[in-house]
Design goal:
The protein has one helix and 15 strands; from the N terminus they run H-E-E-E-E-E-E-E-E-E-E-E-E-E-E-E. It is mainly β. The chain folds into two domains: 48 residues; 192 residues, Exo-inulinase, domain 1 (Jelly Rolls, Sandwich). Bound molecules: magnesium ion.
Length: 258
């Protein structure tokens, strides 16, 4: 009996301590002020939790992405502006521009997060805009320039990561010719109301993990030698990749609608 009592006495503080530990890590608070502009308390336990998305390994598609190119087929694409199949060469896990024209996705996208990997030709054969030129055309209208900008003199708003003809990249983050490079792009489509622009498009770009465009507002659709302007269009449009006559390679393309 004495032993039992002694054990209970010894255990009591431990149990008490365990309870205190739990109280030290509550899963929220309701006695806190409201977060301005919301109906939620600071640290509100009832505020909806973020949806779980499983990340892919080594830049592969996360669980909620639309895979646009997995290295095997261009079934998600067709030739731009037609119903013909995309005829770029698919070999060795990548798709290569081959002069058959630009391609676009069958599916349309507006606000999105895009991951795409590209490599310019290892053999440098031209210069300025003739060197590894291609492009990621968001909504088929707004180009994030793809170019071999490694020790290649060309105009600033035509370099890799440039919002072509409008905004040069914040830095030149180009790898050497032939090396694989990544773009991670966050795009907000423009909004139109009654035929007029209500909110311009906005683009963030990371090239090889380096910020090259920081929520930059676009001035309009991409033009060559002409000032950009907006023309009203649908909320979602196909994503396009440019055939500019250089054998650019692409791989691991996935997109998440936002
Ligand atoms: Mg281009």
């Amino acid at each position: 009996m004495k032993l039992l009592l002694l054990t209970a006495l010894l255990l009591a503080p431990a149990l008490l301590f365990a309870n205190t530990l739990q109280d030290k890590h509550p899963t929220g608070y309701t006695d806190t002020p409201l977060v301005p502009g919301t109906k939620w308390h600071v640290h509100d336990p009832d505020r909806p939790l973020p949806r779980v998305v499983t990340p892919g390994a080594n830049n592969s598609a996360p669980s909620d992405a639309v895979v646009l190119f997995d290295g095997k087929s261009l079934d998600a694409w067709h030739k731009q502006g037609s119903n013909d199949a995309a005829a770029w060469k698919v070999e060795g896990g990548c798709a290569e521009v081959n002069g058959t024209g630009s391609i676009e996705t069958k599916e349309s996208f507006g606000d999105c997060q895009l991951h795409i990997e590209w490599a310019t030709p290892a053999k440098v054969e031209s210069d300025s805009q003739g060197r590894g030129n291609s492009g990621v055309f968001l909504m088929g209208l707004y180009e994030v320039q793809v170019l071999d900008s490694y020790e290649n003199r060309t105009y600033a708003d035509g370099q890799a990561s440039a919002l072509y003809g409008q905004f040069p990249p914040l830095v030149n983050a180009c790898r050497r010719p032939g090396e694989w490079q990544t773009y991670d792009i966050i795009f907000r489509a423009p909004r139109f109301e009654n035929g007029k622009l209500a909110k311009p498009a906005r683009v963030t770009v990371l090239q090889n993990g380096i910020l090259t465009q920081d929520a930059q507002e676009l001035l309009g659709a991409t033009m060559h030698r002409v000032a950009p302007e907006y023309t009203e269009h649908a909320a979602e449009l196909p994503l396009a990749l440019q055939d500019h006559g250089n054998p650019e390679r692409y791989r691991n393309i996935w997109i998440r609608k936002l």
